[in-house]
């Protein structure tokens, strides 16, 4: 079974205030006499399900095209933090980071995906470093940010990056049971970019 955990990209998908709205249109259209349909997309790279590169929050950070792709394919644990305002270590109780060096957290806090949330739960103090020390390579969450939405310093972004953990945001875990899967969520090869949309899927199984 395949779980598609990507948010659909369509007109009206919520974006950060002031950011580029998503739009899709046909530049060439068969109904207008063209031989083929050819579309064009305009969007922020932080629209929908996406990977944040370190360049997003650090001028000297790595661009998305330089990230180690192996972090985005492989064994992952989906854990539940529904109802928790702060995501602490106990959320990951029972997870073997050697077995599943990627984690996805379902908070359930973004209840209406047609509207941008007004507040989100975040990682507790020291959790990002603890995850990195445990061998976690990728941290994903069902929210548009791993930090508070009004944060200007983005402490969790920096802490995760400093500890070798890549960031996957806005995954749709509403219909995914807690457990172990194989994640595929490859970013596009956008040279020098700060982020990339992904088509993220989960399949059953474990292993690298």
Descriptive notes:
The chain has one domain: Glucose Oxidase, domain 1 (3-Layer(bba) Sandwich). Helix content is 7%, strand content 26%. The strands form three sheets. It has a nine-stranded mixed beta sheet with strand order 1-13-11-5-7-9-10-4-12, covered by helices on one side. Strands 2-3 form a two-stranded antiparallel sheet. Helix 1 runs parallel beside helix 2. The protein starts with a strand and ends with a strand.
Short description:
This protein is mostly beta strands and 208 residues long.
- Spatial arrangement of strands, main beta sheet: 1-13-11-5-7-9-10-4-12
- Helix segment tally: 2
Radius of gyration: 17 Å
Q: How far apart, in Å, are the first and last alpha carbons?
A: 18 Å
Count of DSSP strands: 13
Q: Characteristics of this structure?
A:
two-stranded antiparallel sheet, single chain, mainly beta, globular, 208 residues, 2 helices
Secondary structure elements and pairings:
Layout: E1 2-4, E2 23-28, E3 38-42, E4 50-52, E5 73-80, E6 86-87, E7 102-106, E8 122-123, H1 127-133, E9 138-141, H2 155-162, E10 166-169, E11 179-184, E12 195-197, E13 201-204
Parallel strand pairs: 5-7, 6-8, 7-9, 9-10
Antiparallel strand pairs: 1-13, 2-3, 4-10, 4-12, 5-11, 11-13
């Amino acid at each position: 079974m395949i779980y598609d955990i990507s948010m659909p990209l369509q007109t009206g998908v919520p974006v950060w205030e002031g950011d580029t709205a998503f739009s899709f249109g046909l530049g060439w259209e068969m109904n207008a006499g063209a031989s083929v349909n050819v579309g064009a997309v305009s969007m922020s790279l932080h629209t929908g399900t996406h990977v944040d590169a370190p360049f997003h929050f650090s001028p000297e950070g790595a661009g998305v095209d330089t990230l180690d792709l192996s972090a985005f394919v492989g064994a992952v644990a989906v854990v539940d933090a529904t109802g928790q305002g702060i995501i602490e270590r106990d959320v990951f109780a029972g997870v073997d980071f050697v077995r599943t060096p990627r984690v996805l957290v379902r908070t359930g806090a973004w209840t209406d995906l047609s509207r941008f949330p007004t507040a989100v739960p975040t990682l507790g103090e020291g959790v990002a470093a603890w995850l990195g020390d445990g061998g976690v390579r990728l941290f994903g969450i069902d929210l548009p940010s791993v930090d508070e939405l009004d944060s200007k310093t983005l402490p969790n972004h920096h802490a995760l990056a400093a500890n070798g953990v890549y960031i996957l945001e806005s995954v749709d875990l509403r219909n995914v049971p807690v457990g172990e899967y194989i994640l595929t969520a490859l970013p596009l090869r956008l040279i020098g970019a700060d982020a990339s949309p992904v088509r993220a899927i989960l399949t059953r199984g474990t292993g690298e």
